[in-house]
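Appendix C reproduces, verbatim, an entry submitted by the partner laboratory led by Prof. M.T., so that reviewers can inspect both the input and the predicted structure.
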Amino acid sequence: MLFPEKWRKPDFGRRAMSIMNSLKKRKKAAVFDIVNTLLVVLITAITAYPLYFCVIASLSDPVEVAAGHTLFGIQGFTLDAYALVLQEEQLWTGYRNTIIYTVLATLYRLAFTIPAAYVLSKDQLPFKGILSWYFFITMYISGGMIPEYLLIKDLGLLNNPLVMIVGSGVNAYNLIVTRQYFSANIHQSLCDAAYMDGAGEWCTFSKIALPLAKPIIAVMALYIGVGTWNTYYKALLYIYDKDYYPLQLVLRNILNANQLDLSNIQGAASDLENLIYRANMAQGMKYSIVIVASIPLIMIYPFLQKYFEKGVMVGSVKG
């Protein structure tokens, strides 16, 4: 070697090529960011618009809603639809029942789902495959409505509010997601260290696994809570006493009670105008009912969002 390495003339061509490649990468990254931002804004707008439309339609004149003039803003501000919905005494009974059903059903199902998922995440569990399929087979095979009705009847849960709480226990999908979280985030070395210190399986689960599982517990609580809050079909089948009706069934009955068939109505012009107004008001009540049923969940979601962001990504990255 004639000259030392530090005395060599710099390779300006290679450096210029490197700078050009770097600029191209930055340009591509900038284009990607712009396209990605536009797509996210578009998807957000498409997702949020139905709720926005329900808000403006519930606050608009029913005639304007029926005419399709409330696509982008409130037309003829009025609270008549909310007044008709909120004046129903049964509504507050439905709210009370649904809150009780949602809280107790969420605790009940979490009490089964979390321990089952923890156990199934253990590689040393005997017959792990058979036990896993015991739960997972329910995702593909169901007994149907009639066997379920007969089971509920034999258990004495017909017209019993407990059917809204203990009618179902472990959901296979929730179990899969929770098990994956334990497998990916609760390392066996932590459990082995606890075993060496004399901790049993229950102590390891309650003192190590549960504190580290707050994100997935929050996500499962949200999934189960939303599902319980929105259910009405089970109550429609098994609940007969109006004092036990959940909110969704109460709202359904309010809406049905205000539906009118104008096809065979005859009478004075004033009567017809009143009936047409009531028919239009029923349309406005649909949107107010959506808002009344959604507000509690919308208020709770921000408090669970940080846990939801952590737990919902379970299994997305392997390593």
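The chain is about 70% helix and 0% strand. Additional entries are available on request from the coordinating office.
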